[in-house]
Amino acid sequence: MDTNAPKLLPVGPMARILRVPVKWLGEEAEAGRVPSLKAGTVFLFNPEAVERVLLERATGGKVPAR
Question: Which one, of 13, 15, 47, lies nearest residue 28 by Cα?
Fold first, then answer.
């Protein structure tokens, strides 16, 4: 197993990290506004990808380099 692969989190833990409601995050994923992978009925999230997209949305696409 590749230990360098991105960690995928289900909606509950991802929502806690972002401090947003689970329902909101699920709706955003369903609408395709946040990156996610749907495995059956479960959405999985790469925390770095989600945080990057939300930061871009919050700053109008102007994300400072890290």
Answer: 15
